[in-house]
Write a structure and sequence with these properties.
The protein is mainly α. The protein is globular and about 75 Å long.
Length: 300
């Protein structure tokens, strides 16, 4: 009887999991419709990225030499490109590169920027000036120009693109965390931690960091959208990931070369996918800022 009841409970839990997910999405939509719509768009592309091998009707890098630049049809829904590769399959697989660049780049930027902002804000003085001036140097040059130069010098690989984007975006998170730390380092809970004899690292990372990182976390989706856009721009300019890799920026570049002759589908479909993913990330980021800042939500 116990085994049967346990099995029934596990079955009910599995059956109720989709229902709980739907209820949470409904709750999120009530609190922030913008965030809910952005999350749905991101989930759509996440499904494409995870299940790409089963959703693609063709190999994304297989070339059909007898079907070069074929328009959309029943066999090739988005047509084929100048190499005879199926654009629909390449757009689906390109979602993996969108997330595969944006997520690691943001994680790297957070891993560098948050500790630097925390240390600079808490220590102050010469340490603050040295760290912030170093990061300001990264922000002086336009991001796309600096990214172009660094990627061209280090090599056109996925790892190099991620590292460059993460380093360029780290100052954004450092500034956000530093501003919060400056406003809270004289708070009662910080003074209590110091008075209790806690070491400096514990005061910073255990007591101060959790109360200073909300603004930075609210920016992660927006900065992920920036990383997707810049990586696609690098590929479009011929510096980032290149064909035949199914990356949206490289596909748009290839399509731009033949659009004048009327083959619009080569660039339009990956361009729409890129726009939609960036739009969803920006919506989620805007909604996260509303949820984490009640004053901003009341103003709206």
């Amino acid at each position: 009887m116990v085994e049967i009841s346990d099995g029934v409970e596990r079955t009910e839990m599995r059956a109720s999991a989709p229902r709980r997910l739907i209820n949470r999405l409904i709750g999120l939509f009530r609190m922030s419709p913008v965030a809910a719509v952005g999350l749905l768009i991101i989930l759509f592309f996440a499904v494409l990225a995870v299940f790409a091998p089963w959703l693609m009707p063709h190999d994304p890098i297989q070339s059909y030499t007898n079907r070069i630049l074929h328009p959309p049809s029943a066999e090739h829904w988005f047509g084929t490109d100048a190499n005879g590769m199926d654009i629909f399959s390449r757009v689906i697989y390109g979602a993996r590169y969108g997330f595969g660049i944006a997520i690691p780049a943001v994680i790297l930027a957070v891993a560098i920027g948050v500790p630097v902002g925390l240390i600079a804000g808490y220590k102050g003085g010469y340490i603050d000036e040295a760290l912030m001036r170093l990061f300001d140097g990264l922000r002086v040059f336009p991001s796309i120009i600096l990214a172009l130069a660094v990627v061209a010098a280090t090599g056109q690989s996925l790892i190099n693109v991620i590292i460059v984007l993460g380093l360029l975006d780290a100052p954004v998170f450092a500034r956000l965390v530093r501003a919060e730390v400056l406003s809270q380092r004289s708070s009662v809970f910080v003074e209590s931690s110091v008075a209790a004899g806690n070491p400096t690292w514990r005061t910073m990372f255990v007591h101060l960091l959790p109360n200073s990182v909300q603004g930075a976390m609210a920016q992660t989706a927006v900065r992920a959208a920036w990383a997707v856009r810049i990586s696609a721009t690098l590929a479009f300019l011929g510096v980032g990931i290149q064909v035949p890799t199914p990356e949206w920026g490289a596909m748009i570049r290839q399509g731009a070369e033949v659009m004048v002759s009327g083959q619009w589908w080569v660039a339009v479909f990956p361009g729409l996918a890129l726009i939609l993913l960036v739009f969803g990330l920006n919506l989620l980021g805007d909604g996260m800022q509303d949820l984490m800042d009640p004053r901003r939500r009341q103003q709206k």
